[in-house]
Design a protein that fits this description.
453 residues; alpha+beta; Tick-borne Encephalitis virus Glycoprotein, domain 1; 3 domains; 11-stranded antiparallel beta sheet; 5-stranded mixed beta sheet; 36% strand
Length: 453
């Protein structure tokens, strides 16, 4: 029976090597497929039951081995909606079912990130799978769902947002080019109320406004926005109110009326004194160092009300060093308001969020891309189009993958051509050897038949 066992074993060897060749050929064919995971071949021996010393080498069985946890090279891509996963994780995707807007109840998983925005506002990859994630409210940034859902981005309208924060950083000159402040030059005391003043500069016949202009320095200007998105030009001026060997004091004003008439307030004091020490740093007693910033209550310019605005100066945002011009050098002046706008394009940012670019110049996060992982990733069931389905062996999806989404990038196939060619040679030689065993066994059977005749 040994000759016939050799024949059947050789047949099993041919089948196993054919199976390996099929995997090798599939790997080579998909060496340029985005997000493809190569399939390797494992061989298992089959031993017949026999007494010790009477056992013979048995047959062989071939099975596939997944390489789902082996990452491919991340390459740059030209499309702003292309994305790759650096590290552990899978994109959660869905397939359409029937009419537009209907999807299967089953979630699928893929590393193929060549997503493009289709005519209905869905992000669809090259294999036809629809991206899922957490949709964010464009106005508030709040999540609109807890479980992954198919993401859709329409040409949504972004409502206007009033300015609520203003960041200001500047260097005030240790020797200003303006005239020295003299309280006696004013009919109405412009200092803040804590200093015994009214906190306002009034346009009057005594020339308070002209005096203030000559005794203060331009502190820059910025366009803020009210709740309807109307632009509001906010201008600032600094006035040095005290100079001594121990340091200098300044007060900050913003313009409330660019064309005041007699008796109207033209500039408003922000309501605090900025004290600088001899080293040009803000004194620890200055309110600007409190960390909470200053509140410009009911900021109004030329009758247009912006509302309460928090003015932040940052860490060491205000300094007082020498200046050759004697003027204020504004290093940074930004605000967070904007007009209404329509979405023009979608892209993926460095934080792995899908963002929308709007006609008002704003870039707003629209969605968080959900990444899933599994306890048994190599036990996922492969599907057409580089997608996978969960199995009992893989376990249920865990939506806390540690990988990060990289925008404008794609993950290449993890197939190594050199390795596949070497495995191809080994499979070819093994196949030929098994074929030789069959021909040898056939010759032996023919010899046996000759003896019988």
């Amino acid at each position: 029976m040994g000759i016939f066992d050799a024949l059947t074993t050789a047949v099993a060897g041919l089948q196993s090597q054919s199976f390996a060749l099929q995997n090798i050929s599939g790997n080579i064919a998909n060496s340029q497929t985005v997000g493809y995971k190569e399939t390797d071949t494992a061989f298992e021996d089959l031993v017949s039951q026999a007494e010790l010393g009477e056992q013979t080498s048995g047959g062989v069985f071939a099975s596939s081995v997944s390489s789902n946890t082996v990452q491919g090279t991340i390459q740059s891509a030209s499309s702003p909606t292309d994305m790759a996963i650096d590290g552990n994780g899978w994109f959660v995707v869905a397939q359409p079912a029937g009419s537009t807007g209907q999807f299967d109840d089953t979630n699928y998983y893929t590393r193929r990130g060549d997503f493009q925005l289709n005519q209905d506002g869905y992000l669809v990859n090259g294999a036809g799978y629809y991206l899922m994630g957490t949709q964010l409210n464009p106005a508030t940034g709040a999540a609109e769902n807890t479980e992954p859902q198919v993401l859709q981005f329409n040409n949504s309208f972004l409502p206007a947002s009033a300015t609520s924060d203003l960041d200001y950083e500047a260097n005030l000159p240790s020797t200003p080019s303006s005239s020295a402040f003299k309280l006696s030059d004013y009919t109405v005391n412009p200092l803040d109320t804590a200093s015994g003043g009214t906190g306002t500069v009034v346009d009057n016949t005594q020339g308070d406004l002209a005096t203030f202009t000559s005794q203060s320095l331009d502190g820059g200007s910025i366009t803020a926005y009210d709740s309807e998105g109307n632009p509001v030009n906010v201008q600032f001026r600094w006035m040095e109110t005290n100079s001594s060997a121990n340091g200098n004091s300044w007060q900050l004003f913003y313009q409330t009326n660019s064309s005041p008439t007699t008796g109207q307030v033209a500039w408003q004091n922000v309501g605090t004194t900025f004290n600088f020490n001899q080293a040009g740093q803000l004194s620890s007693t200055s309110p600007a160092l409190s960390g909470n910033g200053l509140t410009l209550s009911n900021l109004t310019v030329n009758g247009d009300t912006v509302g309460n605005v928090t003015m932040n100066f940052g860490t060491n945002g205000l300094t007082q060093f020498a200046s050759s011009t004697g003027s204020v050098q504004v290093n940074s002046l930004t605000q967070n308001g904007f007009t209404a706008g329509e979405m023009q394009s979608v892209s993926v940012d460095a934080q792995g969020q899908v963002t929308g670019s709007y006609s008002n110049g704003q870039t707003i996060p629209l969605a968080d891309v959900t990444l899933a992982t599994f306890n048994g990733q190599d036990s996922l069931a492969p599907l057409n189009g580089e997608a996978y389905a969960a199995t009992p062996e893989s376990g249920t999806p865990i939506y806390s993958a540690t990988g990060t989404v990289v925008g404008s990038s794609l993950e290449a196939s993890n197939v190594d051509i050199a390795t596949q060619f070497s495995q191809l040679i080994v499979a070819q030689q093994a196949y030929s050897a098994n074929a030789k065993v069959m021909s040898t066994a056939d010759q032996m059977i023919q010899s046996l038949l000759t003896v019988i005749q």
